[in-house]
Amino acid sequence: MRNGNKKGLLFGKISIVDIAVIVVIILLAAGTVYKFKGLAKTNTNAAMVPVTYTVEVKKVRPYVFDNVKEGDILYDKTSGNSIGTIVAVEGTPAKEATATFNGQTVLMDVENRVDVKFTVEAEAVKSSNGTYHINRTYEVIRNSAKKFMTKYFECNGTITDISER
Questions:
Q1: How far is CA 97 from CA 94, 102, 105, 114, 121, in A?
Q2: How far is CA 136 from each of CA 72, 86, 133, 154, rounded to the nearest angstrom?
Q3: Where are the domains of the chain?
Q4: Model pTM score
Q5: What is the number of other CB atoms lying within 10 angstroms of the CB of residue 132?
Q6: Strand intervals (E) in the chain
Q7: Displacement of CA 20 from its chain's centroid (Å)
Q8: Does residue 53 contact residue 134 with C-beta atoms inside 8 Å?
Q9: CB-based contact 123:134 (threshold 8 Å)
Q10: Which of 19-33, 35-49, 76-90, 125-139 is predicted least confidently?
């Protein structure tokens, strides 16, 4: 026994197309309610705190060290986003563990290389687990290796220290 007729009416009263339209409208309404009522909101009102973090770059050429200036804006190489302003720069002769002829290991200077340490200030949001997010997205974690750049240089460095100002 058939439930439809030649005009496409189901049980002789309602069209199959009408049922499909009603189902789509119900699904859209349910999705809207879920999006605006069911999902947990992210906190966009979290207070920004001033943070200072230190970046160490090992064994760079002296001319690269000369291009790191206080007041330069530091960017994340991957995203290109600003992640703070350099407020202090210091360089020390690069050292490397080297084996001697008598079998001992000593720290010796690396010729034409400098270890650079620069201090960066930024505004960040502190999350509940204690990590900081600059611009609400860039996570700053101690001992993490990142790619950094200014408009004058780029390098691979390690974040060695993070603190609130």
A1: 10, 14, 6, 15, 32
A2: 21, 19, 5, 23
A3: 9-38, 48-164
A4: 0.66
A5: 21
A6: 9-10, 14-15, 48-60, 73-76, 82-99, 105-126, 132-134, 138-140, 145-149, 154-164
A7: 44
A8: no
A9: yes
A10: 35-49
Residue the block writes with tokens 């009263």: 13
Phi and psi of 97, rounded to 5°? -70, 125
Residue 4 pLDDT grade (very low, low, confident, very high; cuts 50, 70, 90): low
Distance, in Å, from the CA atom of 99 to the CA atom of 81, rounded to the nearest integer, reads: 42
CA angle 40, 44, 49 (to 5 degrees): 130
Inter-residue contact 164 to 157 (CB < 8 Å): no
pLDDT mean over 137-147: 86
Task: Show the tokens assigned to 119.
Answer: 């201090």
